[in-house]
Design a protein that fits this description.
With about 400 residues, this protein is mostly helical. It is built from 21 helices and no strands. The chain folds into three domains: about 1-95, Ankyrin repeat-containing domain (Serine Threonine Protein Phosphatase 5, Tetratricopeptide repeat, Alpha Horseshoe); about 100-245, Alpha Horseshoe (Serine Threonine Protein Phosphatase 5, Tetratricopeptide repeat); about 255-295 and about 310-405.
Length: about 400
């Protein structure tokens, strides 16, 4: 590059830039033909001459994506040189520069995750959400880089952003959080290899994290952690062995279904609501009108305590076979209905609808125990009803907490 043009870029002298263009109108064309080169835009990015850089981007937009001999673009150099204002100016021209790969496949998001530039990292994620999927040559995301670099703040920012941005897509969360790099290591493997208890604790709280993933050496994250002997890893081992979701499996079950249903078309959801509403009605009607009807007391005014008046005429075996199938259909329909309403309804509607559904389920159990042909069956049904009712209550409780977090 001509020394006069280089000095103009270093000092930010726009007049000198145009003076040189008057002298040699094809100078940028020749520079652009070179595969790897330091352009005036690269120099301005390092020195932080924002005005000159913006002028260059206006004159020659292709320079923004040109890599120099070291594999860096102007936006890479601006970030690595500590010129955040320059980086923001670049993004104001082209947001997709966040995804521009340089040396070793690194984007500016990877560097921000490595160097704990949390403010810029947040902006990168906001202006270009897809940058979270970008991989280096070692197939690592920015989340991998943060875990490998022991940068908890950057790690926390990205993890919270992922949960918020992809809250309606469980499959996307599973993909990002369990992605394996070139060596088969997940983010959890890298956090474990560096013995980062804070990072591990925050990460395993995500239900989508697969702790049993193995890398190319056949090791899980726990294996990697237990092989770490250079530091006291007891805290990390304890965290990784714990199960923060042990008591929330039932309460979060409807959340899993809801994530699945949210990927369906509204017409499909409405059709399923109709179908499962009919199933609920049919199964409940089977209690009001059991097969064969009810037994009648032939002796009026009889004081016989063993009277079967009002009980099902079915034998105990047939009663159990019929109503187990009926009950399973009823409760499955109930859980699916809650998940479908979660997709279609507002918080206020669900807050009142869920307890009403719980009362209907309780009434189902009471009615079933009432018509049972024997006292033993009635007691069994009562106990089962209580257990199922409390299970459904936990599901509703988790559903209500899910809304409050929103």
């Amino acid at each position: 590059m001509d020394e006069r043009l280089k000095r103009a870029a270093e000092t930010g002298n726009i007049d000198a830039l145009y003076s040189f263009i008057h002298h040699d109108a094809n100078v940028f064309k020749r520079i652009d033909k070179m595969e790897f080169v330091d352009t005036p835009l690269h120099i301005a990015a390092v020195t932080g001459n924002n005005g000159f850089a913006m002028e260059m981007m206006n004159l020659k937009p292709s320079f923004t994506r040109k890599l120099n001999q070291d594999g860096f673009s102007p936006i890479h150099l601006a970030l690595l040189s500590g010129k955040p204002e320059m980086v923001i100016d670049f993004l104001s021209i082209d947001e997709n520069l966040v995804r521009l790969k340089g040396r070793e496949g690194f984007t500016v998001a990877h560097y921000a995750a490595r160097d704990v530039n949390v403010h810029l990292l947040s902006q990168f994620l906001d202006v270009c959400p897809d940058c979270i999927f970008d991989l280096t040559m070692r197939r690592q995301t920015a989340l991998h880089i943060a875990a490998e670099s022991k940068n908890f703040e950057a790690f926390k920012v990205m993890l919270e952003w992922i949960q918020k941005t992809f809250k309606d897509s469980r499959s996307t969360r599973i993909k990002i959080l369990n992605l394996q790099d070139k060596d088969g290591n997940t983010v959890l493997h890298l956090a474990a290899s560096n013995n980062q208890p804070q990072m591990i604790k925050l990460f395993v709280k995500c239900k989508e994290v697969d702790r049993k993933k193995i890398n190319q050496l056949g090791f899980t994250a726990m294996d990697v952690l237990q092989r770490e002997t250079l530091a006291d890893n007891r805290t990390s081992v304890k965290i990784l062995k714990s199960n923060p979701h042990r008591f929330s499996k039932f309460s979060n079950f409807n959340g899993i279904l809801t994530d699945y249903f949210k990927e369906m078309k509204p017409e499909t959801i409405n059709a399923l609501l109709v179908v499962f509403s009919l199933v609920l009605s049919m199964t409940y009607q089977a209690i009001l009108s059991p097969p064969g009807g009810f037994a009648e007391d032939g002796a009026a005014g009889s004081n016989n305590k063993d009277s079967r008046e009002g009980k099902s005429v079915m034998t105990s075996t047939n009663f159990i076979l019929f109503y187990i199938s009926n009950g399973v259909a009823f409760f499955i329909s109930f859980v699916i209905m809650i998940s479908l309403f979660d997709v279609e309804s507002t918080e206020s509607i669900m807050y009142f609808l869920s307890p009403i559904n719980l009362m209907v389920c309780f009434c189902y159990g009471v009615a079933l125990s009432t018509i049972a042909p024997s006292t033993t069956l009635s007691l069994v049904i009562v106990c089962t009803t209580i257990i199922v009712h409390y299970s459904l209550y936990f599901i509703w409780s988790g559903h209500h907490r899910h809304f409050r977090k929103k």
